[in-house]
Amino acid sequence: MRENDWNDPDWRAAADAWVTARLGALGTPVTGGIEQFRVRPWSVTHRVPTTGGVRWFKANITGCRYEAGLAEALADIAPGATLAPLAVDTGRGWLLTADAGPTLRETLAADDRVTTWTAMLQAYSALQRATVAHVGRLGTLGVPDQRVSLLPGLLAGLLADPDIRAAVDPAVPALAGEFAGWCAELAADGIPPALQHDDLHDNNVFPDLRFFDWGDASVGHPFGTLLVTLNVMHDTLDAPARASAMARLRDAYLEPWTDLADLPALRRSATLACRVTRVSRALSWRRGLTGAAIPVDEGFRGAPAAWLGELLQPTTI
């Protein structure tokens, strides 16, 4: 059986057997064919019909297998805040969940966006605060350690990769000293490391504000989550209302952290965190492409270098 090959018949047979056994033990036996629903180089999702309704199976490639154990741990760390798994195989990175219906994005009316996103961001801040005391446990599960004190070295490692170095903007290596200064300032801001989703947007949360899809997550500066989240919101909002809405959303996320610093200091940290977390995004992409399960599109191959190139640009907040 070939690992990281969603089309290998032996791998598929093993996965189907595991799903069938787990669901049978849970009292919701499989009632029909298990369908390969969504295929990516880094993960695959199967739709499973059962007597209790649809169930979902997800598998990750080696570098992202920690998602299964992380999803299980989060159900314990922050009950009700995440989509709790029905079963996991942490060694193989397999995850089985119930169907939770449409995502927040699929149900959100345009005139409710800012209000609903505000609630989403504050709920995610609360989840992150719950993980602060458990970062050691998350590390034992294989969640990558990308705290800001480590990011300068991780950036150097990315730039040492010949494929990335050949594709990256030549101005990025010269930014290393300034980048280290940003990281040092963030490391001293009094905000503790926490779980950083790294790809949080309204399609990775349900309307009841349960969060899911942890395949890119790391331990890092919590405010780095805002990089993708606010970029998505920025691009969704109409230009006339964008500036005021973005400030409101940023501050809504930061409000649960105001016991640790005043709002101006938190805003400074958020801006810096969004900038340095572009390295985390590059690392996430490299993990997701190393040992890919299916051929990788050229657009995906260039993602790590493209995210490093973003270091040269200001943030949206």
TrEMBL record:
One of its GO terms (molecular function) is transferase activity. Keywords: Transferase. Pfam families: APH (PF01636). It comes from the Bacteria. Residues 64-254 form the Aminoglycoside phosphotransferase domain. InterPro entries: Aminoglycoside_PTrfase, Kinase-like_dom_sf. This is Phosphotransferase family enzyme.
